[in-house]
Amino acid sequence: MEMRARLRQVPLDLSAAWAIARKDMIIYYLRPNIIVSGILFPLFMFLAFAIGTIGGSAPPTGGTSEIAQLGALIPGLLAITVLFSASSIEPVSIPIERRMKTFDRLISAPISLQALVLGESISGTLYSVGIALIPLVIGVLFFGNQILSPVVLLLALFLSSLCFSSMGTLVASYPTENVGEVMSILNLIRFPLIFLSGVFIPLSSLPGWGQAVAFFSPLTYTSDLIRFGYNGASHISPILDILVLAAFIIGFQAFGNYLYRKFNE
Amino acid sequence: MPVPAIEVQSLSKRYGQIQALDSVSFSVPEGETFGYLGPNGAGKTTTIRILTGITLPTGGTARIFGHDIIRETIESRRHMGIVHETSNVYDDLTAWQNLIFTAELYHVERAGRDEWAKELLETFDLFARKDDLAHGFSKGMKRRLTLAMGLINHPRLLFMDEPTSGLDVQSNLIIRRVIRELAGEGVTVFLTTHNIEEANLTCDRVAIIDHGKIAAIDSPERLKKTIQSVQSVEVGFDRQVPEIKDGLMNIPTVNEVRKEGDKIRFFTEDPSAVLPAIIAYAEREHLRVLSLTTCGPSLEDVFIRLTGLDTENDRRPLWK
After folding, report:
1. Mean pLDDT, all residues of chain B
2. How far apart are CA B53 and CA B57, in angstroms?
3. What is the ipTM of this complex?
4. pLDDT tens-digit profile of B140-160?
5. A118 to chain B: which residues are within 8 Å by CB?
6. Are A107 and B54 within 8 A, CB to CB?
């Protein structure tokens, strides 16, 4: 496509991406498997760590009272909430749409594959930001969490949500009509990330190899940026966190675009 | 010279060891209703998937209104509407939401969009159910909604994959009427169907595809003329006469005799020579002839002959 035609297509693609995202919001946000994967799972994960913390079996997370200890877990809960909720929509919606043949409708429309991948990712992003606001507000109201930089925190939530929804869209490119198959692949990626990204276990407490691996995980930068938004402390650097998350987004989107094209051939 | 709506040259598609399409070439001028017939697995859906840019060919070219479907996919798709083989509507959206979502995917301008959507729902007898989820729709209603969605962008070219397969009479009638009206408005229709009579009635030309190759392309009438030997005389007697088979077998110039429902069909190259023999036989056996019809070759006969189904299935004479 020549450059002028490409530029003409950009607003059309953005508008179509938004239409796809809205369609997903109406159809998939309240699906039981998305609620389980996107909301209940991070909640249970948090409770497991919370019980461990109160019982004294988990590493100290700062604070003196049990309430303060739980409050200190909220940034970690936010990070895994974003990871699980953002990456839960497309691995469910896309295999279902393949099975119902509505996916053919999307890939035969006069839009680019980028628009399709972006549209699918936007629905996961907005879902995740909405869900993440729940623990955030609970933390402020009931656990006395202070937010030093709300703008950075919101930016962290948005960038991380887009990053993990792009990852979910990428994994959902696997050409199957079976939701379980995609979720299995996704969980193979998501679960190790929780333990290798400084979410509940600080990076400084990880062994050397663990710290090295953590730098390849987008969740590390999510967790670091969220903590910076809360208390101004960053193990890496907020600027670097933002740049790396942006790089992951671009990488997931581009690779997703490639795989959807490849699997379609 | 006007640009054809579809121009396909040496189109091929291979899936591993299977040659789904083998150097297929044809051209469809704008405004034509073009039927694409073939048995299951002949390559019909593969052709549509390539022409709509869903699947890439392994060889050859396809152009939609002059735009290469591979290099100018989006531009090619702007002109087309697609009615997929399955009624792929969103069950969890209402009829109205399905239409508007498709309009947004196809960049239909807001001005006039809602009026056109309303008109389409009325045309397909769905307006009263516009706010109902498609989940509760019957098969025919979903099919009609699929067709309405295919028309939301005012396409110049409409791809229809088995549009009336397995539908109720009401839906069939509505869809056939719309196809006729589209043809009247100059819309090009590319139609795949198993219903040969439907192709015979609605298509200007048909292509018969078998094992990934085009076996014939022409108008239904000209195709029928190519197999004039397959003419027949259909007779209805006043009672069942299975015992007459020996007599029927001996009528000269009859190639084959088949019992079809309560009638008997005599296949022949010369119906006029068969008629007196049948009448004489009826008199001799005290039978009353209730109906007697001479039939030319049908498009189905052409299809069966060209796809070789006659040698594989029930072309064996019943009594001869």
Report:
1. 87
2. 9
3. 0.86
4. 999 999 999 999 999 999 999
5. none
6. yes
